[in-house]
Design a protein that fits this description.
Number of strands: 7
Low-confidence stretches: none
Distance between the termini: 36 Å
CATH class of the domain at 37-53 and 60-154 and 188-218: Alpha Beta
Number of helices: 8
Radius of gyration: 17 Å
Helix content: 25-40%
Length: about 220
């Protein structure tokens, strides 16, 4: 296990979306997220946050922004969990096929799109570990319009690497490389809040034994 964060290239990030190895890796990621219970936690964390924090203008539903939206699976789920919500996905990849028209999509550089996007809730699953320290600090400076943050990231501990070794026989070659790289780029308790500059935000952070560090933060 890396003592400090080490952000290194992951193979999946450099593959075309239709590459068979990329398709297999995304299937692996869906399996890993299901094992870790990440989407289940996001669902209940967002519902808690929405009960706690209503929009000041009551016209329309809540507005969610998902960074690193990938195949749009979580965008679809958020849209179904919160009927009437506006959901926008951000990703370097193009809009996934058959994504409902009600879900907005912004392809390209997150840091170019985010300042001009409207939304109170920013969420992401297994995306922030791709960002080096300077990029996370830059993202933190762009959160002035947000009221709720919801993130699941790799927990950078030795036991997470042990679980990754157990999963290797079930994974394709890309995931066998990328999984330990992701863990080494993950976070320990308190680290993500510090890097994003959330000292003045309220929040709850937890870790799950399956290897996920979870952060729900909101403005007071």
């Amino acid at each position: 296990m890396a003592i400090g964060r080490v952000v290194a290239p992951e193979i999946l990030d450099g593959l075309p979306a239709d590459d068979p190895r990329a398709l297999r890796a995304r299937r692996d990621l869906r399996t890993i997220n299901a094992f870790m219970g990440n989407h289940f936690w996001v669902k209940h964390a967002l519902r808690r946050a929405m009960r706690r924090y209503e929009r000041p203008d009551t016209a329309g539903g809540p507005r969610f922004l998902e960074i690193g939206a990938g195949d749009g699976r979580l965008c679809r789920k958020v849209s179904s969990w919160f009927p009437g919500a506006t959901v926008t996905g951000f990703d370097l990849s193009s809009r996934p096929p058959r994504l409902p028209e009600s879900i907005l999509w912004k392809q390209g550089n997150l840091f170019e799109h985010l300042p001009n996007s409207v939304g109170e809730v920013l969420l992401g699953v297994m995306i922030l570990h791709h960002f080096p320290t300077e990029t996370l600090m830059e993202l933190g400076r762009m959160l002035s319009k947000c009221r709720v943050l919801c993130f699941c990231e790799p927990w950078r501990v030795r036991f997470a690497h042990f679980l990754g070794l157990l999963m290797r026989p079930l994974c394709g070659e890309v995931t066998r490389h990328d999984l330990p790289v992701s863990i080494d780029a993950g976070f320990v308790s308190g680290e993500l809040r510090r890097l994003l500059g959330l000292e003045r935000w309220h929040g709850e952070e937890s870790v799950d034994w399956r290897g996920s560090l979870r952060l729900l933060a909101w403005r007071g």
